[in-house]
Amino acid sequence: MCIRDSDKLERPVWYLYRPEDNRLLRVNPTLYANPFNLLDEGWLDDQRFAFRYNERGHQRMRLVVVDAATGDAKSAVEDVTRTFIDWTGKSFFEIGPGGNEAIWQSERSGWSHLERVNLRSGQRWPITQGNWVVRDVDRVDHEKRQIWFTAGGVHAGQDPYHVHFGRVNFDGTGLTWLTRADGQHRVAFSPDGEFLVASYSRADLPPVHEIRRVSDGAAVMELEKADDSALRAAGWRTPIVFSAKGRDGVTDIWGLIYLPTTFDPAKKYAVVEDIYAGPHSAHVPKNWHVNSFGQQNAELGFIVVRIDGMGTSHRSKAFHDVAWQNIADAGFPDRMAWMRAAAQKVPQMDLTRVGIYGTSAGGQNALHAVLLHGDFYKLAVADCGCYDNRMDKIWWNEQWMGYPIGPHYEAQSGRTLAPRLKGDLMLVLGEEDTNVDPASTWQVVDALVQANKDFELVVLPNVGHGALGHPYAQRRFREFLVERLIRGR
To answer: In sequence order, what E strands does 96-145 have?
Structure first.
């Protein structure tokens, strides 16, 4: 059964039906009074039913256990945070046979880790620990009491976003890293499970394939290593992997620098940032790639950069929490510090001519760049952006901006900030966007007109979300970059 709230979100209410005595028991809703959603419902045994309660605002995640005989409910385990629980990305949960224990993912230590929970007593024990993050759980082996998982930040000196594979016992012992090379990994196991093929690469390293032993992760042999010498001989350049300190002077910020194949060390180049700062993940490519959108745009005569600033995922909880009620931040203080440091490494970067472009959440980020940091970013192309977090997908926006809706929503709206526009702006919109309401763009357009601000508007009929991918929009976008940042028109 569901009750509709004032803002039209359903509020489920559990009932248990007992056919043996034709009784309908209403489960006491006290422990799940304000749900955003209820997850992972199921029977622990023939006397106990359980579900996870994800509270509206995403600051509490609770496992509720229900007595089937009475309908009474109790909290078996819960996490509470001042900011947000990343329920879309860091909330693995699995109940063991017999219904007496569960594996529970939590960031209460400040890092994404796994815990073992006694569902009768509520006692919790860490399975993984340390200043690194569990990314995903591949497999839970209840018979051997082992967990197979992926993680980041586990090997000192490597990019903390590199995905590695590991195995650990339920009691936290026997932690074994199955991959160790400096790169982004994927694996394939042999039929007997004794060996695996680990394939890894980096943005600046072509793929390498090796055999490793599953028992201890030791390397057995290298199978193959890709050769990019022909590409290099033809003038192709790998992106430059670069890290620099962020706004706090302590935290490493990672990104890529794309140079044109015609790069001339004697010239200065305008810099263009390819941005997507959605807090649900991290977005700088870690695999080897040869024809990215960033590289294509560099060929116009730019140096293109991609950066993961604070407020994005796959680092510490504190790193991620920068986004809480603060999505307009988008890591800009880290991005600008990173670019200033990058210009010391690549002095051909002209930071007096910096542009930015992005789509969807990246469109919102690009708009905020010229509304809030117009002294640094001189140009922006914003495509299909969710410029007001009150009128986009509720599951995504409330995850980071919180509930109830407060004045911070209005303060960070593109419509509110439109009078602060500095520099050149192009808005791109797909008229049939079903992901982000086109009205979000039109509200910004109206506010810019009211503020008497000059801007470009490209509207594509019969085109949906991500209109910048359309050939016409790409031509207009690239002409805009060249005309304003290179030719200075």
So the answer is: 101-106, 113-118, 124-126, 133-141
